[in-house]
Write a structure and sequence with these properties.
CATH superfamily of one domain: Thiolase/Chalcone synthase
CATH topology of one domain: Peroxisomal Thiolase, Chain A, domain 1
Radius of gyration: 20 Å
Shape: globular
Largest sheet: 11 strands, mixed
Oligomer: single chain
CATH architecture of one domain: 3-Layer(aba) Sandwich
CATH class of one domain: Alpha Beta
Number of strands: 19
Length: 418
C-alpha cells in the first residue's frame, strides 16, 4: 500500500514541441581521490565540451548560449566556471553563459534551462555541461572573516557537512533510511538492487554500450588567444582514463559484509558512488536541426519539478514522474525506458513501489550505485543515456529523473525521433 500520495503534490511543469537533444559525450567517472582528483570541475567541463564538439556536427561558432551545472565550488575561480567552459571549448566570445544549481537535480535543470531559452527564441543552439569534482570539495571555515577567537577555530569537511539538511536536522542517508522504514524495505533487498546495478554496468561496459557515450580522458593543454592557458593532468602519472572507475563485479556476500552507514539498510556498497567527472550535450531548435540535416538523439518533450518533505527527499522522482505523465495523459507503462538516479538503493526501491515501475525498464545499463553520482553531472548523463537507449532499443518515450536534497524531485521526458 502506498505511503505517499504523489498525485496530491503541485508541480512546476514545462512543455516543448520542437526542442531537440542532438548529441552528448562524457568523461569516465572516477572514484573520489582517484585519477581526476587534481582537476577542477571547470577543466573537466572544458574537456567534456571539447570532446562533444569533436564528436558532433555542430561547430562551436554556432553555439549561442552556454548553461553549466555545478554544485560544490571546488576551485578558486569557480565563479567563472560556465564562462570559462564556453570560452576554452571554442564558443564565441559573444555567447553568454549561465550557472544553474538544483542540488542533485542540477544537470536536469541545465537541460530544461537551455530548452526554455531556445523556446523563447533567445538562441538556436545551447551547449549544456555538467561538471563536478567531489575530490576537491574544500575543508572549509565559515565565520572567521573577522578573526579567530581562542578555542573557536573550526574547519570542517564540506563534502561531508553539506549532506546534512539542517531543516529536519538529518543527513541525506538518513532520509533514505526513513523511506526504508515507511516502505518496509530490507537490507537484503537493497543489497540485491546494488548487485544488479554493478552487474548491469559491468556488462554494459563489456558489451561496448558506453563506447559511444564516454570519451577517454588524457592529459590536455588548451590555448585561448589573448588569455591564460588551461589544461588537465591526470594524477598518479596516468596516461589515460578510459572507463568508469567504480564499476566492478561484486557479489551479494561482499555487499552484505559492509557495515551500515546510517544505522539501517544503507551502506557504502548500496549507495551512489562518490566520483568526479563531467558530461556535455547539445540542445537545439527544430529549425536549426532541420536546416543542418542533423539526426538528433531525442526530442525534449518537457519536464517537471516538485517539492516533497525534506525528511523523505528521496521519494522526489515519484511525484515528478507522475505529474509529468499526468499532464500528458500518459501512464507509467507508456514509457519504454527510465533512468532514475540511484542516490540510495532504498530510495530508488521506494520510488519503484510508489510508481509501480517495471524494474526491467529502469537503469538497464547500471546506475549511480555502480557508475557514480557527480552531483551536477548526473542529470546530463541520465538524459543522454535514456535518449541513446530509445534509439538503440526502438522505444518511443523515455524519462530521466532524480531526487534532490532539501526535498525535491525532477524529471525530463524525451521522445525517439523515429
Amino acid at each position: 500500500m502506498s505511503t505517499y500520495s504523489a498525485s496530491e503534490q503541485g508541480a512546476m511543469l514545462s512543455s516543448y514541441e520542437d526542442i531537440w537533444l542532438v548529441e552528448g559525450a562524457r568523461t569516465p567517472f572516477d572514484d573520489y581521490c582517484g585519477a581526476l582528483r587534481d582537476t577542477s570541475p571547470t577543466d573537466l567541463g572544458i574537456y567534456a565540451a571539447r570532446a562533444l564538439f569533436d564528436k558532433a556536427e555542430i561547430p562551436a561558432s554556432d553555439v549561442g548560449f552556454v548553461v553549466a551545472g555545478n554544485m560544490a565550488q571546488s576551485s578558486y575561480d569557480a565563479f567563472f566556471l560556465p564562462r570559462h567552459i564556453g570560452l576554452y571549448a571554442g564558443v564565441p566570445l559573444t555567447a553568454p553563459s549561465l550557472l544553474v544549481q538544483r542540488l542533485c537535480g542540477t544537470g536536469f535543470e541545465a537541460i530544461l534551462t537551455a530548452a526554455d531559452q531556445i523556446a523563447h527564441g533567445k538562441a538556436k543552439v545551447a551547449l549544456v555541461v555538467g561538471a563536478e569534482s567531489m575530490s576537491r570539495n574544500p575543508i572549509a571555515s565559515y565565520g572567521h572573516r573577522a578573526g579567530f577567537r581562542m578555542g573557536q577555530v573550526e574547519f570542517k569537511d564540506f563534502l561531508w557537512e553539506a549532506t546534512l539538511d539542517t531543516a529536519p536536522g538529518i543527513g541525506m542517508g538518513n532520509t533514505a533510511e526513513n523511506l526504508a522504514v515507511r516502505y518496509g524495505i530490507t537490507r537484503e533487498e537493497v543489497d540485491e538492487f546494488a548487485l544488479r546495478s554493478f552487474g548491469l554496468a559491468s556488462k554494459a561496459w563489456d558489451n561496448g554500450y558506453f563506447d559511444d557515450e564516454v570519451v577517454p580522458v588524457t592529459n590536455a593543454h588548451w590555448r585561448l588567444e589573448g588569455y591564460q592557458d588551461r589544461g588537465l593532468k591526470l594524477a598518479d602519472k596516468k596516461a589515460a582514463l578510459s572507463r568508469d572507475g567504480h564499476v566492478r563485479v561484486s557479489s551479494l556476500d561482499a555487499l552484505a559484509k559492509i557495515r551500515p552507514a546510517f544505522g539501517g539498510v544503507q551502506t557504502g556498497g548500496n549507495s551512489s558512488a562518490i566520483v568526479d567527472g563531467a558530461a556535455a550535450v547539445f540542445v537545439a531548435s527544430g529549425d536549426y536541426v532541420r536546416a543542418h540535416g542533423l539526426k538528433p538523439l531525442a526530442r525534449i518533450c518537457g519536464g517537471s519539478v516538485v517539492g516533497v518533505p525534506p525528511e523523505i527527499m528521496g521519494i522526489g522522482p515519484a511525484p515528478a514522474i507522475k505529474s509529468l505523465l499526468d499532464s500528458r495523459g500518459m501512464s507509467v507503462d507508456d514509457v519504454a525506458r527510465y533512468e532514475i538516479n540511484e542516490a540510495f538503493g532504498a530510495q530508488y526501491i521506494a520510488c519503484e513501489r510508489e510508481l509501480g515501475l517495471d524494474r526491467d525498464r529502469v537503469n538497464t545499463q547500471g546506475g549511480a550505485i555502480a557508475i557514480g553520482h557527480p552531483l551536477g553531472v548526473t542529470g546530463v548523463r541520465l538524459t543522454h543515456t535514456v535518449s541513446r537507449q530509445l534509439t538503440r532499443f526502438d522505444g518511443q518515450y523515455g524519462i530521466s529523473s532524480a531526487c534532490a536534497g532539501g526535498g525535491q524531485g525532477i524529471a525530463v521526458l524525451v521522445e525517439n525521433p523515429a
